[in-house]
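thought: fold this chain, then report.
action: predict
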Amino acid sequence: MKALPLARRLRVAIIGGGFSGAAVAWHLARANRPERLSISVIEPRPALGGGLAYSSEEPSHRVNVPAVRMSMAPDDSQHFARWLAGSGELERDPDALWKNGDVFPRRRVFGRYVAEHLAPWLASGAIRHVEAQASQVVRETKGAGWTVQTSAGPVEADIVVLAATHPLPAIPAALASLAEAPGFIADPYASSALAGIGPGASVLIIGSGLTSADMVAELDRRGHRGRILALSRRGLRSRGHPDVRGEPFGDFASSPATSALGLLRNIRATLASARKANVNWQSVFDQLRLQGPLLWAALAPPERARLVRQLRVFWDVHRFRIAPQVACVLDRRQIAGTFDTIAARLVASNDEGESLAISFQRRGQTRIETASFDAVINTTGPAHGQALQSNPALRSLTEAGLIGGDAYGLGIETSLDSRAIGSDGKPVAGLFVAGPLARGTFGELMGLPEVARHARMVAAEIAGLLDTLPSGGAVGANAGSVALAR
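observation:
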């Protein structure tokens, strides 16, 4: 009897092993037979799943939503909560349990949850961790495959998934003169970035969103009691969670707005209805979040650009809420007079040796003020518009005309099936984008539930290619020179 030919293995290389990349790998491995698929995740950190967001060892850094709303499995909202209950983490961190019964664990705990769910697949070889930095992505002749150059050697693939981490915050032009100053912290995510700030130091934080709040909480945890000032263009602080969580409220999807102004009017009308019904505003924004992809799709590109330009800052502070433990620190410090938030624009800066002089103009005023600080922390948010140049792998694809920035400065332009769009305006076969860098196409793609759903969708698109593969000899997962696959 003649033996049947072996099915060719589809080689998938995922660049980035934070939550986005790890979730794509996990969904692929769970849904497909390992003999049909080879998955390599290229990530320089020693563990997969943590990434920038969930690798922090700082005890004050907590997840920003209740544990019951965080899950790798979009159809199982209790997936993380069940793991957490049996992990022993709540016994080690009783402050995670808030007074309303919601749990806000430390971020590193969520990273551990993701890593533990990937562990069996890593042990079996279904997923390989290439502990290296991707430096270049090259498409083979006639588009027959890809080679990802890494610090550990080349990785060959049929499919490449771009799941790169958030880029670092850009340094505002007015602070460029401080780039090398000892008291200037350009990367707030760096390990022990705040360790050199003394307990009585005066601190300026540029930005007033989630990372800014984390910096205040961490400084407070380290014993800092000096003056902290957060400065942003609008002076808007991230909002908190309600005392009692409600169900999503409102309906924005039955007749979606076709303009940014129309959407704003619908939101205001729904908020008014919520107040009459004694429903908190957070429930309205929860509904907006759920229906976000449809609302984004209903807007023409000029209206999407207007939404990003004019309303994004208001969306961010209401949508991305801070954990109540962190909110309490900010409130306590504000009452004590050691923390404040102002609306102002930066004008200039100067390194004076013993201190950093910052000039700024408050919103609505003409006078320029100058104040001295011992430390300045940059928390202006990820520079998504610079991601294609700051990341060497993405830069190589940009220079080859295989990816390009979206029209809104949010990330990479993609098709509706999450394939990258090349310079010719066509989807690039075998090149996918997963996670926040695809949000120019899909809208809301920063929150974990949305990223988890998108990761599953990308995995499903890739799995669908298995049926199109020709029969033939099995193909190895990586080039033989990659010895670090874990």
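thought: worth noting. The first helix runs from residue 19 to 31.
final: tokens above.
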